Amino acid sequence: MELEAATRRFQLWLRGLRSLRRDLRTARWADDPAQLAKLVAGYVSHFADYCAARAELDPVWTLAAPWASPVERGAAHWLAGWRPTTLVHLLYTESGNRFEAQLPDLLLGVRSGNLGDLSPAQLAQIDELQRRTVAQEDELSREMARVQEGHGAVGAGGELVDVGGLVGRVGAVLAGADALRLRTMKRAVEILEPAQAAELLVAAADMEIGFREFGLKYDGVGAGGS
């Protein structure tokens, strides 16, 4: 029953993500920073709500993610979700693509206000975000490795002596991973202007939804669809 509820929750979250992506795509072309900021905040809130809902699940279900396709679990998941530094890499990629496309205008002093127009101060903050996030990812990966090795939960004869404690530690690591994903998203949005943040979040939604659609198409997974 818990699996069915978790799958429905994922379906609803993904449906909401599609709606937010559509709204952001439409609004980012309008000259209304307040509206963009509201939609960006809604996107972050949508992800925060999903993280809170995941925290209520049995961590074994969260880690196994049976509602996801093998492609998603194998290629896109780090500790039951996307790697936080992926968002920073996506930011750099989108910024580079836009910078290259509008270089002639930039040389003439025409500013676009999009991700191709990041200021030196923004770039410095993004670099700091990346370095800090990498360090925190590494610590979570090390902790999960310790859990998987059974530290503190395996007796001298190789038997499990504290299954509940082991599952609790898995839950703590997964909660830490979700918290890092959310912190990284919030900090990236803080660094960027509303139009830039909208572009980044549209790209992030494209990535999330794209992996989902690819997995369903090529793995034939029907559970937890759009």
TrEMBL record:
Protein name: DOG1 domain-containing protein
Highest taxon listed in the record's lineage: Eukaryota
InterPro entries, per database record: Seed_Dev/Stress_Resp_Reg, TGA_domain
Molecular function via GO: sequence-specific DNA binding
Domain DOG1 intervals: 3-221
Pfam family, one: DOG1
Organism: Triticum aestivum
GO biological process: DNA-templated transcription
